Structure to design on (484 residues):
């Protein structure tokens, strides 16, 4: 039986863990202990977990180990360590939404995501942190303080799935779930060097659906994200917005599901020659793209073109009025929550968020409807502009990671969010969008590329990301061992 150090165990992929459990070469309990040791070592600085119960995790790992020994495992991910974002309901666990407000809601039932994870036997290590109400693209929270990057503690992890991003990069297990309404899975993805997926609208069921909001995986590899989707992307009638998607072949290279996607690390099954690929480098809104980010993403298009893909430039398709209106609608939505708090509780909300949402008080009902209608406008133009392409390549964000203590990349609560021009259109359109690391800045900050596709083409988008991941230059490959 192979022997592994605790560092090696907590850094193994979900595919490696599952194969090791199936062969009797790895123990879910040993893996859980190794992840707990990693968390206890790194958590005092990273601050990625809101709830951490090592005793419960060990108990779940023991149950998984017994199932594997009996050949009664619940899924390929039985015993694999995972985390979930704190706004994903876990029965009996408070859901403060990143704020220091007293008496947070305590979940009386699991969210669909939680149920699917538990039904598959995966081991939940804890709930990860988020900023106040999920409305910051950082790990700054009135409740948690600052969540920090596993790459460099001075850098942001991104947000709002802040703890999920830090946990994935740091090795708190291989699989993590975040949520995303404007980029909150993909932004930690790009700033932490991760593979992520914002799925098609309603593909992963939610118990509290909202326009543009999704849950999705964050992992160190596309293969692990794809494997996680076999659990997460199952129908649940609690999500009344869900669409009746046909089954997706997450594991179609192994139809009997005894193996794993992209097992050789080089063959995703993607036919690149003739693939219709768009490259968008100008979102038409927000901040200008940093030259290092632009160069890294353009190089991805070159890789596809060299393999025979038909690459065309795609111009901007949303305009600043759309983004302004959406931002103002979100401000009004948060103002509705903030304004009913007593004064002493308003003071507990992060000052940046209090200032940001205060503009929402200015809009009357008619203007609020006009702002809300920007969602449909953005959906229409995004679907129209991208309809001719199999994959749309773009930056995830215009900039690389910024200081951890800074709430937003552009640190001005009165400004429209300047960093979501490439990500938010796909929330509004309902299209899938994946990220994978494609380079680093000169000072070592990760740079991700976004790959979007047609609604319901989630597995194909992941195949494109997996293909690029397998052929990307060595300089674009994250060295996870350096974070051990």
């Amino acid at each position: 039986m192979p022997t592994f150090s605790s560092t090696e165990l907590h850094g193994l992929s979900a595919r490696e863990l599952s194969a090791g459990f199936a062969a009797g070469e790895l123990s879910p309990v040993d893996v859980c202990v190794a992840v707990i040791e990693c968390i206890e070592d790194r958590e005092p600085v990273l601050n990625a977990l809101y709830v951490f119960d090592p005793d419960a995790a060990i108990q779940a790992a023991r149950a998984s180990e017994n199932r594997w020994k009996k050949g009664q495992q619940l899924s390929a991910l039985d015993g694999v360590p995972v985390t979930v974002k704190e706004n994903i309901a876990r029965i009996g666990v408070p859901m403060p939404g990143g704020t220091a407000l007293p008496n947070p809601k305590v979940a009386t039932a699991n969210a669909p995501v939680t149920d699917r994870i538990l039904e598959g036997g995966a081991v939940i290590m804890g709930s990860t942190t988020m900023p106040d109400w999920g409305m910051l693209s950082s790990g700054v929270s009135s409740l948690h303080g600052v969540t920090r990057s596993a790459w460099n503690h001075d850098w942001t992890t991104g947000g709002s799935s802040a703890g999920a991003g830090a946990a994935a990069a740091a090795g708190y297990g291989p699989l993590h779930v975040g949520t995303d309404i404007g980029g909150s899975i993909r932004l930690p993805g790009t700033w932490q060097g991760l593979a992520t997926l914002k799925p098609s609208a309603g593909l992963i069921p939610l118990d509290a659906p909202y326009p543009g909001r999704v849950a999705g995986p964050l992992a160190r590899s596309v293969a692990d994200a794809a494997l996680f989707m076999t659990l997460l992307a199952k129908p649940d009638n609690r999500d009344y917005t869900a669409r009746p998607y046909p089954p997706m072949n997450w594991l179609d290279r192994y139809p009997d599901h005894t193996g794993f996607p992209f097992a050789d690390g080089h063959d995703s099954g993607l036919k690149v020659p003739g693939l219709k690929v768009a490259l968008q480098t100008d979102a038409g809104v927000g901040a200008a793209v940093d030259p290092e980010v632009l160069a890294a993403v353009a190089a991805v298009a070159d890789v596809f073109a060299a393999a025979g893909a038909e690459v065309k430039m795609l111009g901007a398709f949303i305009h600043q009025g759309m983004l302004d209106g959406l931002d103002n609608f979100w401000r009004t939505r948060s103002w509705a929550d903030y304004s009913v708090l007593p004064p002493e509780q308003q003071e507990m909300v992060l000052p940046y968020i209090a200032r940001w949402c205060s503009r929402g008080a200015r809009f009357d009902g008619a203007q609020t409807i006009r702002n809300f209608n920007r969602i449909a406008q953005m959906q229409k133009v995004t679907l129209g502009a991208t309809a001719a392409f199999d994959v749309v390549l773009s930056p995830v964000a215009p900039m690389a990671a910024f200081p951890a203590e800074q709430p937003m990349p552009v640190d001005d609560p009165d400004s429209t969010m300047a960093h979501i021009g490439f990500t938010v259109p796909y929330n509004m359109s309902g299209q899938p969008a994946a990220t994978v690391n494609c380079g680093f800045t000169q000072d070592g900050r990760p740079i991700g590329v976004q790959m979007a596709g047609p609604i319901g083409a989630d597995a194909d988008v992941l195949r494109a990301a997996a293909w690029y991941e397998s052929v990307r230059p060595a300089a674009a490959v994250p060295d996870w061992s350096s974070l051990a």
